[in-house]
Amino acid sequence: MEDIIATMAEQLGPALVILGASLAVGFAGSGSAWGIGIANEAAAGIMTEDPKKFGYALVLLALPGTQGIYGLLVAFIAMSKAGLLGGGGVSISIWQGLGIGCACLPIAIAGFYSAIWQGKSSAASILLISKRPDQIGKAVILPAMCETYAVFALLMSIMMLTGIKV
Amino acid sequence: MSRSEAYGYAVARIRAMEPMLFDAALYQRLLDADGLGGALKVMGETGYAKGLSGEESGDRYDSALEAELKATYDEFESFVPDRALVDIFRVPYDFHNVKVLLKSNFNARSGGRKRWDLMTSLGTIPTDDLIVRIESEEYALLPYGLSQIVPSCMTVWEQTRDLVEVERLLDRGLFAAIAALAESVGDPGVVMWVKSRIDSENIRNLLRLKRFGFDAAATVPFLHGGGTIDPMTLVSLLPEPYDSWARMISYSDAGSAIASVQDDGNFDNLIVALEKALDDYCQSRLENARYSQNSPENVLAYLWGKEMEVKNIRTVLVSKGADSDRDEVKRRLRHGY
Lengths: 166, 337
Hints:
The complex is a heterodimer of chains A (166) and B (337).
Chain A: H1 2-49, H2 54-62, H3 66-81, H4 94-103, H5 105-131, H6 136-163
Chain B: H1 3-17, H2 24-32, H3 35-43, H4 49-52, H5 58-79, H6 83-109, H7 127-135, H8 146-160, H9 163-185, H10 188-211, H11 216-219, H12 231-235, H13 245-248, H14 254-259, H15 267-284, H16 297-322, H17 326-332
């Protein structure tokens, strides 16, 4: 029984890291896919009437995709820190694993919601350029405001990860 | 897929179609054009070109306008999630066609000729199908309540020979059908807009009936229920001077449309000005929807804008043919989309 508990304690640290990394990639990626889907509908709508607007639309519908990349980046850092990449032999305690797992949450949560709202914002900007393509500069800035908070979350996740001693 | 997601594509497509609608500069060019030929030349540079083909006859531009409107309806039906939104605009043409067929039928019985040429292709029921069903008296398959309304109209005609009553029955059925279509969409904005349209129609009818000296009892049957203003309230306006109407229904948004038109003592001018004000009022009721990227009202706004565009073009082209005063024609044009 003691052996089982000892093994569980040994494995729980890496498991918590994997859980955190999964949440970062899963939630941020899902939010990005959702946001891009919303922007895609608007892009498809304007391209049905004017295919020449593809270039403008592509810039705007790609914006919600960045949160997925941030989530992937944080997951890589977390797994690297725990030695789960490349088969390194780093030993992670339960508390270290919990810390790394929690450090992944900011980008998982903020990435998910900011990507969806950025998708809605991008869709609105796509409607703007359908009538006023000359306003593409302003149209990109509006959804980029949502990006700010995903960047804050990314920074916080990275700072937390670097702050944990392994 | 949720309602908002379903309309994301449709609204974006509508936004991309907006630049193709006539703007103030294009209307000005039409008005400034030298005669009907010049106006048709301007039209040749727009989306109406394919239906015109360089012809200058009146019938030709009328059919070009109808073809453009039909193409718009057909296109919308292909991508709008709720077809009922398009049907709200097409059903009046079905009722128009039924009116034409019934009147032709009555006319033929008294030795006149049938005027099927007055039918329009803009309705939801193909004209050939409608002719077959009415002529063979197979009313059971007619939609929008026509299966009950048409036999009632036939009975009224056979018993009273009263064409006005037949028209009244059809108009009542039309607004009930439009209200049912709006309800089927399940969007409060769409329902409110249809109520505004019913109010507009009632106010228009009220003024026309006042002109012909109808009293309250005779007016009530011509007013439709389902609007925001109760028909009995509207009837109470009948004995009052027009200038006090806006004050008496100031609680309704339609009051502002009435207030925007001043009575100069000429009934003809008043009716024309009020009809324009009420059409603009219907347009204004949809303006807030244009800030939304997923509201079904965007579909109504575009289609109403297109209807008004066709109405404006027809007004300008007819005025060119009749050599009317340009400023007077400009005053009659509805606000663009």
